[in-house]
């Protein structure tokens, strides 16, 4: 974007720089936003076009188009235009509109993570160990020290370590 130009119509700082090619000649016009909106045939922004389309769509999409995140201030239309959300809260706020997008992009709406490709037995063992550690934590929290001691011993047996847990 060109800097330091003034609006051709009112003299304020120009924020819109329109280049027209007509009859083989290139002409650049420098306008402030106000004059650009009044007197040029500038196409609407992607956000404005999305807003018009959504207003003609279903009631659910109309509702979604009107939402704005209280945390980061992003609207659903801004997300659609930029392709990125502003904060974690947006996933909850815009959930109805995100489901279709995630399904198209990732072929699923649930994240399943990666699976180890090398040794399935080792992966199962790690998962069992992780589960036993969770049970140990729960037993200690419930003050079931007898079960906790048994689980501790099984974990030590699995890991071959006196200090694991």
Radius of gyration: 29 Å
- How much helical structure, as a percent, in the residues? 40-55%
**Multimeric organization:** single chain
Structural class: mainly alpha
Q: Helical element count? A: 8
Largest sheet, in brief, is: 2 strands, antiparallel
Structure, explained:
This protein has 165 residues and is mostly helical. The chain has three domains: 1-42, no CATH class; 46-106, no CATH class; 120-159. The chain is built from eight helices and two strands, in the order E-E-H-H-H-H-H-H-H-H. It has helices at 33-39, 46-55, 59-65, 76-82, 89-93, 95-106, 120-141, 145-159; strands at 16-22, 25-31. A two-stranded antiparallel sheet has the order 1-2. A hairpin with a 2-residue loop joins strand 1 (16-22) and strand 2 (25-31). The longest helix has 22 residues, at 120-141. The N and C termini lie far apart (60 Å).
């Amino acid at each position: 974007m060109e800097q330091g130009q003034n609006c051709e119509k009112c003299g304020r700082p120009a924020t819109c720089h329109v280049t027209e090619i007509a009859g083989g000649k290139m002409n650049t016009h420098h306008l402030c936003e106000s004059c650009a909106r009044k007197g040029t045939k500038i196409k609407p922004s992607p956000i404005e076009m999305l807003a018009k389309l959504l207003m003609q769509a279903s009631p659910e999409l109309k509702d979604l188009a009107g939402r704005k995140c209280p945390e980061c201030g992003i609207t659903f239309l801004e997300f659609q235009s930029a392709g990125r959300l502003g904060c974690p809260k947006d996933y909850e706020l815009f959930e109805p509109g995100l489901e279709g997008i995630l399904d198209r992009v990732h072929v699923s709406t649930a994240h399943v993570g990666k699976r180890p490709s090398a040794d399935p037995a080792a992966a199962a063992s790690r998962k069992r160990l992780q589960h036993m550690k969770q049970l140990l934590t729960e037993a200690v929290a419930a003050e079931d020290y007898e079960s906790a001691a048994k689980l501790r011993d099984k974990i030590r047996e699995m890991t071959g370590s006196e200090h694991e847990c």
